[in-house]
Automatic annotation (TrEMBL):
<keyword id="KW-0575">Peroxidase</keyword>
<keyword id="KW-0732">Signal</keyword>
<dbReference type="InterPro" id="IPR006314">
    <property type="entry name" value="Dyp_peroxidase"/>
</dbReference>
<keyword id="KW-0408">Iron</keyword>
<comment type="similarity">
    <text>Belongs to the DyP-type peroxidase family.</text>
</comment>
<keyword id="KW-0479">Metal-binding</keyword>
<dbReference type="InterPro" id="IPR011008">
    <property type="entry name" value="Dimeric_a/b-barrel"/>
</dbReference>
<keyword id="KW-0560">Oxidoreductase</keyword>
<dbReference type="Pfam" id="PF21105">
    <property type="entry name" value="DyP_N"/>
</dbReference>
<feature type="signal peptide">
    <location>
        <begin position="1"/>
        <end position="19"/>
    </location>
</feature>
<dbReference type="InterPro" id="IPR048328">
    <property type="entry name" value="Dyp_perox_C"/>
</dbReference>
<feature type="domain" description="Dyp-type peroxidase C-terminal">
    <location>
        <begin position="260"/>
        <end position="438"/>
    </location>
</feature>
<protein>
    <recommendedName>
        <fullName>Dye-decolorizing peroxidase</fullName>
    </recommendedName>
</protein>
<dbReference type="Pfam" id="PF20628">
    <property type="entry name" value="Dyp_perox_C"/>
</dbReference>
<dbReference type="InterPro" id="IPR049509">
    <property type="entry name" value="DyP_N"/>
</dbReference>
<feature type="domain" description="DyP dimeric alpha+beta barrel">
    <location>
        <begin position="62"/>
        <end position="210"/>
    </location>
</feature>
<keyword id="KW-0349">Heme</keyword>
Length: 511
């Protein structure tokens, strides 16, 4: 009697332990997968790509998961913190936090994804707070983004979120899942572990937009279509996709020009540029409606949509205007064997003059300013980034839409939580923003100077609200200038971080 009672109790205990497994396998992915965006590599493909002898050696178990995956999260919270008690923080970092950090392999299939993916990155001030004095070899990172605001063309820093002003942010947690509840639970867990060793400076809650807008940024355009293929990671390179050496994105890997001088513990890490870019969506829509083109054969709505598409270089669906110059083409948008298969040049068109013809795509279009393709002769420009941002903030309210004006209610702020990874900020984000986007003469050698990027370009040193001139947007009169008297995107600041290899969390970073 007694014995079997004990057996039953033990049996129940075993059963209940089994009923609440420590690791609950996922059924739905953390990631979105719109047709227009490149698919994630399968674990099998990532393995195959990794065995190519020339590129062997990417340790996908050590590289944090966000870096090579791109803009595909359903929900993502950026939690910016300062380190107030370095000794406690370091001990928790290696004993508890490290095991929660999600690597690249884990994200590749739903069954290995955690409930909430966690990544961590540190600013230079954060490394200093941890007593790490190694020079990572990146000046932008070293000085921080606040010191870089003027170079980036920001209209001063009065629009900056106060937390980003200065160097008080030491690190950021990136928490990604399919629900806000999961994200919040994981944040509570991290805060519980770290206690008063950290304090919150700022947070940005991102989410894929609802319904059929999933994958689209707040102006309505599909995002995340053109991302570099990474040697040693991407097996199936799409037509028109740039292929980069792993070291263009990852510190210390093949192709990182500073490979030999990087501290050895940084191998497989990446510099993370964060920018909180507010989007003035009703103002953008109003501007586009007021500047509808008058291309014969198009309806008024089509002429309005065409103007918007020519600012970006893609239709809202994601179809590239270089291949669909007059009307949107959803089939083209959703076919990723075709939606990057263009160069802006058209040798197949008799008499096409590359230096002057912007009938299909303006020289100033956002995707042309940020990736000039054949304009630079060859693709390998050395200025690629992996974009991994996500929209933040609510949808436009009816009141804002009818007023054609963004609310000043801070809870209605919306935009892009912009994230870019690269091994060298000066060659990646800074170069793109300063030498291309903000340079009114770039793309060089064209018949008409294009002006700044209409979406994110600002002439450095110009006062806020200074009209920004662009050209090429009207295909009937490409030399016609548009004076953009509205800043559609307002920089709210950001910071430069280093996303270390996971092994460093129990090594140098917690020593
Ligand atoms: C709120 C601000 C921004 C918006 C609304 C925006 C929107 C877009 C959209 C709709 C695309 C087309 C989708 C694609 O080709 O993947 C795109 C592509 C791109 N954007 Fe942005 N973007 C913003 C900020 C930035 C910034 C700050 C940079 C870097 C300085 C940047 C760099 C790029 C690059 C490199 C591409 C891909 C170009 C290509 O490879 O063809 N974007 N962006
Ligand atoms: C890609 O573009 C090239 C050159 O224009 C063309 O020959 C080829 O058919 C295109 N591929 C696809 C899948 O559309
Ligand atoms: C520019 O190129 C388009 C096709 O890409 C062509 O139809 C047009 O005639 C060209 N314009 C000029 C002025 O040559």
């Amino acid at each position: 009697m007694k014995v079997s009672y004990i057996a039953i109790v033990i049996g129940l205990a075993v059963q209940s332990a089994l009923a609440v497994p420590k690791f609950q396998p996922r059924r739905t992915s953390i990631l979105i997968n719109p047709d227009a965006q490149p698919d994630l590599p399968s674990p099998q493909n990532a393995r195959l790509a990794g065995v190519t002898p020339a590129n062997a050696g990417l340790n996908l178990n050590d590289i944090q998961g966000d870096i090579l995956i791109g803009m595909k999260k359903k929900k993502e919270l950026f939690f910016f913190f300062s380190i107030d008690d370095a000794a406690t923080f370091k001990s928790k970092l290696s004993s508890d936090i490290k095991s929660l950090i999600t690597n690249t392999n884990q994200l590749l299939s739903v069954s290995t994804q955690p409930i909430t993916a966690v990544n961590i990155a540190f600013s230079q001030a954060g490394l200093t707070a941890l007593g790490v004095s190694d020079n990572l070899g990146d000046n932008g990172f070293k000085n921080g983004q606040f010191a870089d605001a003027a170079n980036l063309g920001d209209a001063g820093t009065t629009n900056w979120v106060s937390g980003f002003a200065g160097t008080k942010i030491h690190g950021v947690f990136l928490l990604a899942s399919d629900t806000v509840d999961n994200v919040d639970n994981e944040l509570a867990n991290l805060q519980n572990i770290l206690g008063s060793s950290i304090s919150e400076i700022h947070r940005v809650a991102g989410a894929a937009r609802p319904g059929n807008q999933e994958g689209h940024e707040h102006f309505g355009f599909m995002d995340g279509i053109s991302q570099p293929a990474v040697q040693g990671f991407t097996q199936n390179v799409l037509n028109g996709q740039a292929t980069v050496a792993p070291g263009e994105l990852l510190v210390g890997e093949t192709g990182d020009s500073l490979q030999s001088s990087r501290p050895s513990w940084t191998t497989g890490g990446s510099f993370l540029v964060f920018r909180q870019l507010q989007q003035m969506v009703p103002e953008f829509n109003k501007y586009v409606a007021n500047h509808a083109l008058s291309v014969p054969g198009l309806t008024a709505q089509e002429n309005e949509d065409l103007f918007g598409a020519r600012l970006i270089g893609r239709w809202k669906s994601g179809a590239p205007i270089d291949l669909a110059p007059l009307r949107d083409d959803v089939d083209l948008a959703n076919d990723n064997t075709r939606n990057n298969n263009f160069t802006f040049n058209h040798p197949e068109v008799p008499g096409f003059v590359f230096a002057s013809n912007q009938t299909d795509c303006p020289f100033s279009a956002h995707i042309r300013k940020t990736r000039p393709r054949a304009d630079l002769g060859s693709e390998n420009t050395g200025h690629h980034i992996m974009r991994a941002g996500i929209p933040y903030g609510p949808e436009v309210t009816d009141a804002e839409a009818s007023a054609q004006q963004s609310s000043t209610d801070p809870t209605l702020e919306r935009g892009l939580a912009f994230v870019a990874y690269q091994s060298n900020i000066a060659n990646g984000f800074e170069f793109m923003q300063e030498a291309w986007v903000n340079n009114a003469n770039f793309i060089f050698g064209k018949s008409t100077p294009p002006g700044v990027d209409p979406i994110i370009g600002r002439v450095a040193g110009s006062a806020a609200e200074t009209p920004r001139d662009i050209s090429g947007t009207d295909p009937l009169t490409p030399t016609k200038k548009f004076s953009l008297d509205v800043e559609f995107v307002v920089s709210r600041g950001g910071e430069y971080f280093f996303s270390p290899p996971i092994s460093a969390l129990s090594g140098v970073l917690s020593a």
